[in-house]
Each structure stands twice: as C-alpha cells, then as structure tokens.
Queue: 4 jobs
Job 1
Amino acid sequence: MESDVIICADCLGKKYMIGHELERERYIVLRDVIGRSARNFIRRSMDMLRGRPIFVGDNTEEFWALRDVNFEIKRGEVVGIIGRNGAGKSTLLKILSRITEPTEGRVTINGRVASLLEVGTGFHGELTGRENIYLNGAILGMRRAEIRRKFDEIVAFAEIEKFLDTPVKRYSSGMYVRLAFAVAAHLEPEILLVDEVLAVGDAEFQRKSLGKMSDVAKRGRTVLFVSHNLGAIRRLCSHAFLFDRGKLTFGGNVDATLTAYERLYASLGRVIANMSFHGPLADQIRFDQVICKQGGTVASMLDPLRKFQIEVHGFALRRFSGLELKLSVFRDGLHIASCHDTVDPAPLHAGHFISRFDIPEDVFRPGMYTLAIGLYEPPSRWAWCSEVAALDFSENLGERSADRSGGVVGIAYTAQRIQQNVANCSHVDAL
C-alpha cells in the first residue's frame, strides 16, 4: 500500500443472519430445543449428502450488508458516501471504526480514528454534560490534559453552557448530537467518520458542523461523511463512493458520483413497495409505484417545455378520516417545492388509490430532480420517505436560448416595461 493511502479495503464483506419468526411462542421448554436441534441436524446432513444449499436454521437466511468492497482513500481526502437506505453505508463505517468485524476481506487503517455514528454513543445518561465530555473524550482516545485544554472550546461549540452540569438524560436529541460532535471534532483525529447524525441538529449547527469538518480536512486530515444531503456532499467532499445493495457501484470525483447516483434512481416506473418509510404511519399504507406521464404515455426523460403528470399508486390498509399526501421535489439536496393531493386532509377509504399531480410546462429546468413522499394524518401522525424516484429533464430547450433557462425552477410571472419620455425630464442634463 502506498504511503499516502490512509484507508485500504480489500474484498471487504459483512454477513448477517436474519431470523424470520413465523409465530411467537409464549415459552420454550427443553424438549422443544432438543427436538428442533435434532431436526435441524438431520436436515443439514441430508442437504449436504444431496448437494443442496445448507440453511442455518428453520427461519434464518444470510444477508450480505457488504460484499466484495474494494477502495483506497488517500490522506487528506474528504470522501462522501452516498446510497439509499440499506445500501451498506453505516455498516462500512462501523467496520472502519472497529465496532464490528468484517466477515471476509480486510481493511487497513493508518491513523487514529474518531467516529460519530449514533447520537450519544459513549454517553452515560446519569452523568452531567461536563462529566460526559471527559468520559467520551477518554473513550475516543484523548488524554485528560488534552480534554482539559480543549474543554472550553468544546462547550462553546456545543452551545450547552447553561446545561453543562445537567444529566444528559434530560438533554434533547439536538443537544446530545451537538455535544457528541463537539467532542469528536475536537479530538483532532487523523480520520473522522461521520454518519447521518447531523440531521438532528438545527440549520445553524449543521452549518457550523460542516464548517468544522471542512477545517479538519484543510489541516490534512481525512473525513468520511455519510449523508443523504447531496448539497452538503457536493460542498464538502472532493470524492464520493456510491453504494447499492451492499456493493460499491461507483467511485470518483463528487460530481461524477452524484450524477451516477441520480441516474441509478431515475426510473419512475419502478416498484417502491420496499422503500424505507419512517414515522407512525409507515406501516399503514403501502406504495406500489410512481409513474410519470407526458403526452399521455409513460416517460423516463421529460421535456421541460411541456406539461407532465406524476401518479403515486398506493394501497391503504385502513380507512383514514383525514389524510394528506405530499410530493416534495429536491435538487442537490435543496428542497425546491411541494405538491399536496388535497387542500386539507381528506378521508381515504381502505384499498387502492392514486394521487395524481398535474405539473404545467416551463417550470423545471434541465437536469435531475429527486422526489420524496410524505403523509400526514391529524393531529400528529406522519410518515416520510426520501429518494422515492427521480425526474430527468432533457437539455432540449427548443427555440428558447440558453441564457433564458437559468436557475432551478421557472416562476410564473408577468412583466411590464415602462418607458419614460426622457426629453421631458428636467434632470437629464444634470446627469
């Protein structure tokens, strides 16, 4: 391995065994355990003799969170790691931070690692913020003298001065992540691993955190940043890796990787029933597909100068007295606009439904946009899923010149030019 390579992964893989519980038993006695073990042993023996695949148990299967991953990261690089939920991003960081061991392959790391993977990792709820700074700093490898020297700077960055001597179990999630990131960032490690925990903080703290990671990178340290915020990835990172279903599918400069990411999820006709929705309503509605139509036919590439239609196909598992579906549009991680299928939450009967959105012409500019789906049931039940699908608008602008196609979206407006009679203006000579 070259001297300037600080992280090297060679055929890295991580396998988990997933159990599928068919029915929940109230209790298990010894004879059940003995009988099940005997049946499994006989079944595996027969499968081995007949050349069949060997299953570990009645209701278990293999799941490869990572498989055959190879890459090198040089010292001082800021690398973004992107991909859909379940692509293997967090598993990779857990292996790099030595939280878990790989099933196959190996990873070589030359340098001290600090990681911020989960909110409050290494914190003790009964201890105060002051005590947890010393505890968490020690866990991350800082000496007591080093923590004492940077203590005031850590507290100022986390903005928790008033609550410094309060047990952290009373902290909000935002206060937790501010304090955790402040300690990790001031460790001044050679390698900093950051998962998507900064989303918990407010906008101002996210700006400070991104600035701090940028400062860390400018000092020649290496940063690995997992995020669904493509705008932050573009601003902060020079290189990026794209993961899909546990495999590294693309790696290169950040612009090329983001383009590959958008192209990978550009198909609007694909099934999204396995998408990862979050929130209390996540298991109340299933979604089948998102379809985009232009000119009455399904289209994967759209003409921005023509109107089009987006259809969201779903299935409600129960009746809702009031429900609202929101379709949000993003570009480079920036929220551009939202469309709602009702003015106010309206009743929805159990069964299949379609939410249809008609978008006028000349609104979107050429490029890639991503779609997200949100659900809201009064007073406070919701569900959300990002990266549902993507809109791909062609560069064909017809007769309109390129200098009139700037920006991200088009605004419906009227304009008027008022020409004054310059000859009757008394101040013209003075000018």
Job 2
Amino acid sequence: MDIPRKSAAKKRRIKRILYALTAIIAVAVITVGVSRLQPAVPSVDRPTLWTGTVARGTIPRNVRGLGTLVPEEIRYVPAITAGRVEKRLVQPGAQVKADQVLMELTDPAVEQAFVDAESQLRGADASLTTLKVQLDKTILDQEATLAQAKSDFNKAKMQFEVNDELGKQGLKSPLEVNLSRIAAQDAESRVGLETKRLAGSRDEAKARTAAEDEKVRQLRDAVGLKRKQLDALKVRAGIDGELQTIAVQVGQQVTLGQELARVANPRRLKAEIKIAETQAKDVQLGQTVSIDTRSGIIPGKVIRIDPSVQNGTRTVDASLEGELPKGAVPDLSVDGTIELEKLENILYVNRPVHGQEHSTIGLFKLDPDGSGASQIQVKLGRGSVTTIEILDGLKEGDVVILSDTSQFDSSPRIRIS
C-alpha cells in the first residue's frame, strides 16, 4: 500500500498559488495597458465634406429674408351708406377706372330722405324769395316816406326864409315868422327820424335775409349730403387699378362702413420682407435691397421698418426701383437681400453651418496634405448671408470644414479618406 508523502502535496499547493498570482498579474497588466490606449481617430469621407478657405478682402455685409410683393396703393372700398346689394357689375381680376361702378345698392330710406331734403330746400328757397320781396317793398315805402319828408322840409325851410325876410321889412308879423320857423324845424326833425327808420329797416332786412339764407344753406348742405348718400348706392372703385376682391354677394344687406371690395394698383408694387429680429437691428432706411423674384432681380431701397416684432421677425418694406420682370404680381413670394455695409480688409470665410455672429465655435482645420483635420477654437465677428468675419484662430489660406461636424465635437482630430 502506497502512502502519499506530505512534501508532494505541499508542492502542488505552492504551484496552484503561483499560477493564480501569475494570472492576476497578467490581468492587471492587460487592464492598465488597455486603459492607456488612445481612442481610434474617426474617419470621414471627403465627398461628404464642405470646406472653405480663409481669405482677406472687402465683402458686403448682408441680411436676407423671405417676403411677398404687395401693391403700394390699395383702396379698401367701404359702404358709405347701408343698403342691399342689387347688382354686381365687375368681377375680381378686372381692370377698373376710378369712377367705374363696381356694384349697385338699394335703400328706400336714403332715396326718400333725398326727396324730402329737396322738397324742404325748395320751400326754403320760396320763403327766402318772398321775404326778400317783402323787405324790398318795405324799404321802398320807407325811402318814399323819407323823400316826402325831405320835400316837406325844403318847402318849410323856404317858407321860413321868405317870412323871415318879410318880417324884417315889417310885412310879416313876428308870430307868422316864428310859426314858419317851427314848421321848418319840425320838418327837419321828421327827415332825421325817417332817415333813421330807413337805416333800421335796411339793417332788419339784412339780418332777416341772412337768417333765411343760413337756413337755405343748411338745407342745401343736407341735400348735398343726401345726394352723396344716394350716389354712394353706386359703389365706385375710387382709384385706377385691378379689382382684387368683392366681399359681398347679390341680395346681401350691408352696414355703414363695411368693406365691400378691394382695388389695388398692380403697376406700383413694393416688397414686404421678413427679417430675423437679431439681424434687423442694423437695417436702416435708404439701404440697398436686391429683390429676387425667381424670374429676375429688381433693385430697391428700404423705405419702412416695422417697429414691432411678430414671430421673431420684423417687416421691412422695400421700394422697387427697376423694371418689373414678367410674372411680378401682387402676393408673389420673393427673396430680399439688404446690404448693411461694406467690411473693408477683413479675414473672412464662407459661413459655417452652425456659425453665429460674435461667437466662438470649434472648427476642423485641414492638414496641409488634406489627410486629416484638427479641431481648433475660432472666434467669429460680423456676419453676412454667406460669409462671416474671422477675429481669431485662423489665418489667411487656412482651409476649414464648414459642414456639420457636431458628431465629432469630442474628437480633437478626424481622418479624411
């Protein structure tokens, strides 16, 4: 019978311990080595990249926005009087003249009011004529009375002068002389009284005539107003242009002030451009604008800047100073580019996908051989529609990736294949 020896078992136990220690050390060495390995450099296909070269020079600083062409002259035709639509004589899209009738309204109350106003005016005119005749007769009678008083005064004066002379010769008694003097004085007083009475009659005639004239004038104004209301039942365009809309139907009852139609002059258009609020702060009146209608480019000028902000944009109105291309009609969608200023002798590059004005971003600058690119921090300045100013981080001639590389933001380098 074999008896195992204690020394062999001890040797086997020592071997197992050594194997375990060796395995632990190997695992630790491998773990440390793996942790110190650098991550693999990501690779990008060259055809998917959009690059740009940093240059120095003068560039225009522009802002761009979408907009529409709208007429400069638009007339919203209101209902000057209430009524019912009797006829529609013109359809939208037709060319109309200012005095052309678009539709006819009816309102018996307006027609009756006009007839009544004319009747009242005729009555007032007749009353005025009668009054003038009466006043003229009164003044003529007063003038005749004054003339008679003057004649009586002249006779009495002559009689007094004769009696006074005869009295001095002793041929007339003092009593007769005094009586003739008193008669002359009475006649003179009557002349003065009749003169005042005539002046008073004339003043009275003037006042009464003025009052009656004012009444007639008021009635004539009322007739004019009623005539305008009656004429307003024939709704006219008001301006030469194109009838864009008619807002009512035949038989419809309309109220005072209600919009009936819209007429615009299609030959005088302007562009309403929506500019982002952050970019509109530098837009000023008189700046040059290029309006792209897709069938031609029209030059223009900024003529109005809306002070309010709607949906993050401000509306800028631009006049059209060039000849309108074919197809330039109201409500046409256009692109507007406003030139803010000229940037002289600056470093610039085409605008990166995520490049905003006055910000610092990470861009990948290509190696000289083009096989890779390193990420650098670039400080941007003033921007335009397609270009942006470089303040720091790049120099003239550097080539950078402008397309979206946000998926590589955590990588300092990329490989280009």
Job 3
Amino acid sequence: MGNFIYIIIILIIFASIAHSVQNILSLQEKQSLLTHAETRIMQLEKEKKLLESQLQYVQSDDFVENEARNKLFMVKPGEQTVIIAPELLTHESSQTPPSLPIWKQWLRLFALI
C-alpha cells in the first residue's frame, strides 16, 4: 500500500510538471504573438503618419500649383512658357576626342606618363 501512494504522488508530480511546461510554452507563444503585433502596430503608425503628411501636401496650394504648372502647362500672369525640344536635351557633342594610340593608353594605365 505504501508503494502505491508513492507511485500516485510521483504521477501527480509528473502531471503537474507537464502542465507547468505546457503553460510556459503557451505563454512564450503568446508573448511572441504580442511582440509581432506591437511591431506591426508601430509599422502601421509610421505608414499612417507618412500618408497623413502626403494628404496634407496634396491638399495644399503648393501641390495644386505644381500640378497645374507641370501637367497642365499653366503659368502665372506675366510669365512665359519655355518649351525645350527633347532632342536638345539629349544632344551629345558630335566632337569625340581623338583616341590615343594603344601604347600611350598602356603607359597612361601604368602612370608612366
């Protein structure tokens, strides 16, 4: 009878330990979820602030003026519009520097001249 009581006490202790381990693992998992949720909240708050600042800029007179100037080609009274042809913007010089002989290029490479 004495051995039976010891076995029951040992089984109760093992059950208590198993239950405690299960609770600890569950708490760690919940802590991890909480940390992830807090990180996500911080990211969303940063995104919200960015979007609010963009909304504020879009609703400003500066934005309206820039859009009118850049997309609608509107000007203020007294100003003139200047349109530059695209080929003038990307025009490269037709003069190419004369290439050096290969032996001078090698000397220049090795900093001898």
Job 4
Amino acid sequence: MPDTAIAQLTVSRPGPGHISDNYPITVSLDDEKIGRLSAGKTVTVELAAGTHRLRAFNTLMWKTLTFEVAPGEHARYVVSNRAGWGTTLGAIVGTGWFYPTIDREG
C-alpha cells in the first residue's frame, strides 16, 4: 500500500530550440541538489507532503520558490532561462546573462 504522506515532484526543462539551451540549470530541493538539467531533460523525486523550497541556479543567478505539496500530489514545474536587461548588455561584451525562471505546470 502506498504511503499517503508521500508526494512527487517533477522538474523539467523545455526541449531544444531556445537561445539558452547551452546553459544547464542546477535544481535543488530544500538545499539538496536533485539534478542538473540541460534542454529537454526531466527529474522526478519523491518528497514528504508539506512546504518545500525549490531553487534553480544557472551558475550565475538563481530563482527560489517556496511551494506546498499535499499527500499523494504530483507537483510539476518547468525551469528555464529567460533573457533580460543584462542579456542585451552582456551581449555587447560577448556574453549575455540569463535569468532562471520556475513555472508551475497545469
């Protein structure tokens, strides 16, 4: 019989075809690394129901999200890099900054 206090978390990265595909994103759950996602990759983990902290780090910047997950729930998030004001500014000197985002699916 499955443990009803357990939930699941899936974090995915959009498939190839984005300007930031060459920059992997390290994903941590409650300060523990759960994966380093390149374009099109996914990681799924089990976690206790309750409040958790999800962090996406692209080696330069990070985004942190606190979320709740109920027993038996399967929370799904998409992490990606987006362009911002620093992307254009950095491109002038040969490198652009990307800003990680975390979006809940569904």
